[in-house]
Each structure stands twice: as structure tokens, then as C-alpha cells.
Amino acid sequence: MASATAKMAFTMKVSQLTKHYGQTKAVDGISFTVPHASVFTILGPNGAGKTTTMEMLEGIREPDSGEIEVFGERLTKITRSAKQRIGVLLQEGGFEPYLKVHEVLTMFASFFHRAIPVGDILAAVELTEKSGALVRTLSGGQKQRLAIGAALINDPDLVFLDEPTTGLDPQARLNIWDIVSALQARDKTVILTTHYMEEAEALSDEVCIMDYGSIIAQGSPKSLAEQLGEETLIEFRGLDVSARAWENLQLFCKAARNDQMVITLETDHLTDTMEALFAWSRTHDFKLRDLTVRQPNLEDVFLSLTGRRLRG
Amino acid sequence: MKDILHIARAHITTALRERITLFWFVVFPVFLLTILSLIFGKVGNEGEISFEISLINQEDSASSGFAFSDVIAGAFHEMSTTVDGALEPLFSLHTLDDATDSDQFLESELTALRRGRRAAVLLIPAGLNQAVVANLLQPDASTALADPVRLQLFMSDSNAASTYASQIIQQVLTEIDRRILVEMGRFDDNQAIASETHWIGGEGEETSYVDFVLPGIILMGFFVNGLFGVPGTILFNRDRKVLRRYWVTPLSVARYLVGFGLGHLTLCAVQFVLLYSLGVFVFGAAIRFASPASIGLLILAATTFMAFGFLIASLAKTANGGMATANILNMPMMFLSGLFFPTSGLPVFMMVIVYLNPVSYLLEGLRHSVGVQNSTLMPALTILLVPIGWILLSSLVTSRRLKWDVER
Question: Is there a single domain that holds both residue B178 and residue B268?
Fold first, then answer.
């Protein structure tokens, strides 16, 4: 079966997936394909429907309608047989606080037909020294690594990582990035959600942006950024800009926005716009602090499509 | 199968490592059994307790011309008298008054002995003095009378207090016997006062307080486990999203339930062994849970209370709500079951609870099955049907209402 998966171009294909909560349509007939051995990231602001989508794909909730094709099998919901080859890191999920780390992993291993030796998983998530510790004594980062260990105990072909680095310090976040990269190197398929745009940009092969229960854009981070065209972005700190200065600023660029005290100008003619900006600065006696010039990234795509930042 | 065993093991391990669970699981029932046994069971250090003894003297020393019977009676009267500054007397003596017929009094005291209200009944029969004289006149023990009038001692072998009292009374009688022989200048191994002991508790009559209360304490342990432990584990694990982690694996709810149930019943078995051992080895309980009926009722009780726990988990939206519901049900169900006091004569609205309460039936059945209650007011079928009814009702509600994941 695993070799059959390797030959397939995709690991999972979702068609017209729909889910309602009462009268609210949380997911509205979405379709997408997750290529084999890729990192597929679902992005979306709060309430976009990505958590419900993930829960349906993980098998926690049943879709109202639609089809999920996974490992070459067409299903209306994720079956127990499919779960044998799936690993899930939930966004929120606890462990029995009075179990020891190795006991948790041994128990999870017993749920699957095949399992990696507990010692190997402990080493992979760097918890060997904490093997005999009670779960309640672990730090946040250690608990998250244990959760990843439990998600990978069955050596899954498809791994769901639902906001794996939220709340972790930078070092712990980088450790988890390494684990994701290692999974990809071993031909595993990863479906990821994250609140960190740089994480999505660094790890993803394919990004799917959701809003109001629908998919509004999909592609590689680079191709999505290219959708914004040949424009260049100029950014500087935007404190105390008078109304008149703001009006004048918009006269010499394609678009301007002031978001969280950072002014961003979009332009197709960088030199002309820069000259005009310096003149504007002198005219309004405005100091251009932290001035940067850059190409659009995934955050800009997200902002332009949803009108909101990912972390609002 | 290994997934089920691991779930069971996780449940047991967690329960034994969590202090609050351990308290309710072990410490509380053990504490309660100890307290109740010491206070009501009258088993403790000598000198700090008093044995209820009946003394019936049918001998007329005036007409017989000897006063051996008075010596015996006097010794027991002396031991039931408080000396200034001393501890409570060893015996609390019940004797015949002038208005009561001797045989009637003996009958009523034997009934009291059977019901655990007396530790011993001592009967000095008419003709004992003559029998003592006859014994003393024999040249040695080998020529003693074949069938003399004997001092009659009635004990209950299903009452731990009676067992203790028996040893003390025998020592007292031996000492009186030795003094009489010495006074008469006899130093051989002859016996002046022949006595006969009747153990009547083993015939299935009423029993000691420890034996009476032990089945109830064991049931109470199962009850608290089921009422608090089951919804606590399920609801806290649901709210803390521990269960959610299971549902993304191939583990099914049914297999989780089997594992959980297995773990719960194992915990109940461990609790039973602990409490029963304490009852037998520390407090001298004599009851045996060896019959298929008593074992079956123990399993039925643990299962009923587990089902009750699931019922609470189904009705509560949160773990804290579940604990509050369990607390509300705990007191009326425990106290209106006959666990600590008889339920007859209660007001009608309380009797309704008694009759709906599965604890009442299980307790009655269990006491009956281990022989601490001769007759049961409830038909045997009711004892089984009411708890089974609760299991079925709880299963139905659980299957329809219990949410295995947090609501959105």
C-alpha cells in the first residue's frame, strides 16, 4: 500500500467538502489536492473554517457532504483503517497528567498495527531524559514534543500538524521546523496550519488560503506572491501622520496602507516613488524611520486577499 | 486487545497516582471502617471497652448450703463495678430482677446475644453447688463425675466482641476454680467448677457490627468510585481534550469503554481486597464473600455504580457540573439505603428514594448473601432487577447523550 501511495501524485484529494453548525456554513464546498511528500499549509483568519476542515480531515468530525480521497481510497469520512496511516498533532489536546512520558507513548503505540519503538520516538523528539517523568511535570515545549511523538508513533504516511509551534519559544519552534523537514525528507506528507506567516513561507510547498469557509487562493508561496504582480513594497514607521500628509502620500504610489503603525506603499516604479517619498518627507518634516524596500511575501498576499493579517 | 489493556492500565495507574482519587478510593473507606468498627464494634484495647455480659444465677445457695455460685456471681459483679479513678469496668453486667422469670430472662438474653447486643450469657444452673462439692470430694480427676451440673457459657462466634469476652471469662473462671481448690487444700489438676460453652453465632443468627457494616463499606467504596471517579475521569478528560487525542487514532469509543470499564472494575477489586483484609485481619470480621451470589452481587454493584457514573457524565455539560451532580446524589443515595441505619419508618418521600435507590437493593442482597441478614424484605428478583434496570437506563442515556468531545 505504501508503495502504491508513493506512485500516486497526491496523498489526499478533497472534493466539495461541506460542514454546517446549525444555520452557519463553516465549510462551503471546498476542494483541493495535497501532493505526495509535500508540506501543504492551510492559512486563514479566525473563523475562516480551517479548524473545521482540519477536524474533518483528521476524522474528528464527519462532513455533511463531499468526498475525501486518501491513500487512493474514496471516503465520505476518515475511517479507522485510514487512521492507521495518519498521525495527528491537535491544536489543543491534553494527556493524562499522571502518566509517565514513556507510558503515554506505549499506550498510543498500542492503538496502531505498526509502531516505532518508544525509545526511537523519544530520541526523535528529544525526550529520552524525560522518559520517566509524569506528564504534569513537563514544560509547554516538552508537552508539545510529546504530542508530536504521539502523532508520529505509528510512522504515519500523512501527518496533520495543527498550529504546532503556537506558544513556543524561538528555539523550540526551530526544533519543530527540523522535525517537519525530516518528515518531508522521508517522503511523508504534512498538512499544516499555522499562525506564523514566516513558518508557512519557510516550510510549505503548497499553501491554501481560506476565508468565510471557502478557499480564496491556492499555490506555492512564490506563485501566490507573484499574483501581486511586479510591484515593490516600501515600508516605514507610520506614527503621527497628519491627514493632509496621508492624502499627499497616496498621490505618488499605487496603493498605501497604514497597518499597525507601519506604512506600506505599493509601487511599480520604485525610483520615481522613492524620489517623491523623500520630497514628501521634507515637505511634511516627517522622519522616515526603519525605511525598507522589499518584494511582496505571503503576508502581503494574505492581507490583500482577506484584508486582515494572519495574527490580528 | 492490547489497546484495551493499555487503556485499563492507564486508568488504574492514574487513579493510584492521583492523591485526591487515592483518598476517596482507599483512605476514606478505610478510615470509615476503622472509625465505625472502633466506635460501634466495641473492639479495642481491654480496659477501654466494656463487654455486655448477662449473668443468670438459678442456684439457691441458701437451700444447698454452699455458696460457690455466690463466689462466681460475686466475681463478675466485682468486675463490673467502677473503682474510683479506674478505667471503665471490663464487664457491663445484666442480671435477673425479682419480677422476671428466670427462663424468660435467659431466652431474652440469648436473643440479645444473637443480635450482637451481648458479648456473652453466663448461666449458673440449679445444682451447681452440689456438683462442685461432689467434684471436690473426688480423690482425683480420674474419678470425677461423668455428667455433673455444669456452668453454662453462651457465646456468639459471629461476634468479634464475644470472642474476646470468651477468653476473658474463661480466665476468670479458671482463677475462681484455682482459688476454691487451694482453699480446699487440693493441689492436683482436678476441676471444681465444670463448665460448658455454647457457640450460637455460627447458626446464622445476627452478627457483629463489623460484619454488619463491612458489606456496606465495600459497597460505599464502589459507590463513591462510580459516582465520582467515572464522570470525573470522563468529563475532565473530555474538557482537557485528552479524549480528543484518542479519537484521531484508530481507537474506537467502544474499545475505550471496554478498557475503561476493565480498569474501573479492577480498581474496585483492589479496593475490595484492601477493605476486606482490613475487616478480617484487624477487626475480626467473620463474613465470607465466597459464594457465587456474593461475588456476583459485588460485580453487579461495581457495574451498577459505574453505569450511574456514566449517567452523570451524560447529564453534565462540564466536569465541574458533573462533580456537583455527583455531590447532590451522593448523600441521599448513601444515607437512604440502610448503609448506616435502618430505613424503615422514614417519611414517605424518603421511602420513595429508598425504593428507587439501587444501593438499597445491592446492600440488602449482599448482606443476605454473606449471612449477616437472615431474611430480606425484598424479593430476590427485585434485588437483581432494580440495579440491572439502572444499568440499562444509564446505558441508554449514555449512548444517546454522552458527548465524547467538547462542543463547538
Answer: no
